Every structure is written in structure tokens, then in C-alpha cells.
Amino acid sequence: MSATVAMILALAVGTYAFRLVGPVLHGRVAIPPRVQELLSAGAIVLLVALLATGALTEGGGFAGWARPAGVLVGGVLAWRRAPFPVVVLGAAGVTAVLRAAGVA
Amino acid sequence: MMAPLVRDSALVWLASGVVGVSFGAISVTGGLPVWVPVVMSLVVYAGSAQFSAVGVLLAGGGPVAAAATGLLLNTRTLAFSLAVADILGRGRLARLLGAHLVTDETVAFALAQSDPARRRAAFWISGFGLFAVWNLGVLAGALAGDALGDTGTYGLDAAFPAVLVALVLPALRENPAVRRAALLGAALALAVTPAVPAGVPVLVALAGLAGHGRDGGRTA
């Protein structure tokens, strides 16, 4: 069990260290506007990559049709400026209905 | 200002809570003691890394591989922490506390707001709410075991990518340079996904930033 404790601690400390880099550097290191802009763009790039891989893949392979179909419906709703809850429930609803109908 | 932020955030809390329940249930039914998912959720607080680490453990991969997989997945929080550093401000407590609350959803929710005051409010509302609901969900799931069944039935796995779509769309819409970088990055991430360990694809996506900003692109 102590190996599990060590694993949790290593993961927790390492993750917190990653998360602390930005707040600790802020105000100590002058970040030029050009770099700050690149960081904001980088966050968007990461989020889009996360949503793309999250929508389409599972364990390194294709996630099946039900999930990307739901995400696509959510995306269209968001594009048409539907309220946030409609986007989320629409995406989950379509995927749930497709699965209930036998689509993986 | 608060009410719409709470309303939009609450749905993400709800979905995260259910995913938390499934994390607790999967861990316990896989043979781990109740305290493992519960403590892990409090001190690691990163959904995808927790699922991966427990998955490696339950598959017999050993604690070193479990920690390494989780850490690899969480390297992206370093980039996120840089992106939200000015939202957290200069106070020591705000920095130490805020750092722990940096997650995909909270960063996306904060960056999607239009002005600094709203960004700050959005970060803390989403951050605290998500932390509370996630951990309560994990505890409930760990205690309930496998009573919930397969959360895939509810389509929750589609809800999270859709949340991110809704949150990044404004930035993609108004900034062609960011849009190009993001689409290129996503294509790269998808292309390498079958070949590399989990966590690496989104880092590869950062290559989409190469050449970004030379045409005077600006970020919302």
C-alpha cells in the first residue's frame, strides 16, 4: 500500500508544481506582450486539441460514432449561439439516444 | 455578473460530479480501497490523469508507470497556469490556492469571458464549484461502488468536448491566426494519437503555434 501512497504523492506534487509555474513567475518575470499573447493562443490550441482528441478517440483508437455525433450537434448549437446548457445537454442527449438505438 | 456565470458553470459541475462518481466507483470495484480515489481526487485533482493512473494500477502496470502516465497528461496544466497567471493576481494565497484549481474546464471558462473582472470571477466560481462537486462525486461513487452502471449510457463523454467547443468558439471566431494554429494543432494531435502515449498528442498540438502572430494576429 505504501507504493500506492508514493504514487499518489508523486502525481500530486508533480501536478501542483506544473500548476504553480505560471502563478509563481507572474509578477517576477516580466512577460512581454508578444509572449503573453502566445500563451493565450497556446491555451486555446491545447483546448481545441483536447476537444478534438476527446471527441474522436478513446485509448488511441476511434471512439465510435455516437460520441463525435453528439459533439458535432453541440458544436452546431454553440455556433448558432444557443445557450450553454442547451449545447451541453444537446451533445449528451444525442450521444445517449444514439447509444440507446444501438450505435456505438 | 455572478448569476449567469454560476448558471453556466453549474452544468459543468453536474456533469463533472457524475464523472467523479464513476471514477470513485471504477476505482473501488477494480479492487482499490475507498481512500485511494478519495485522497487522489483531493490532492491530484485532475480527472483524466486520475482515470489514467488508476487504469494503469488496475491493469497491473505498477505505481511508477501510473504516476508517470498521470504526470505526462498533466504537463498541459503548466501551459494553462501560465495563461491564467494574470487572472489569479499577485496575492500569495490566491496564487497557491488558484494553482491547484487549474483544470481544462476552469481555464476554458475563465478565458472565454470578455473582461478581466469577469475572467477572475469565472475562474474562482468554476474552480471552487468544480473542486467541491468533483470530490463529493468521487466520494459518493467510492462508497456506492458499481450501483451507477455505465456512465456512457448518459452520453457524458460527449458533454465534455462539447463544453470545450462552446468555450473556445468565441476566440476561434474572432481571431483567424488563433483559428489556424488551433486547427493545425488539432490535426497534428489526431494524427499522432494512435502512435504515442496518452497526454502526448495535445502537447504535439502546440507545434500548431509555429509561425503564429507573424501576421499581426491578436488574441481575445
TrEMBL record, chain A:
Record keyword Translocase present: no
Keyword Translocase in record: no
Transmembrane segments: 38-57
Keywords: Membrane, Transmembrane, Transmembrane helix
InterPro entries named in the record: Brnchd-chn_aa_trnsp_AzlD, Rhodanese-like_dom
All copies of domain Rhodanese, residue ranges: 71-88
Pfam families, per database record: AzlD
Superkingdom of the organism of origin: Bacteria
Protein name, per record: Branched-chain amino acid transporter
Organism: Streptomyces viridochromogenes
Lineage per the UniProt record: Bacteria, Bacillati, Actinomycetota, Actinomycetes, Kitasatosporales
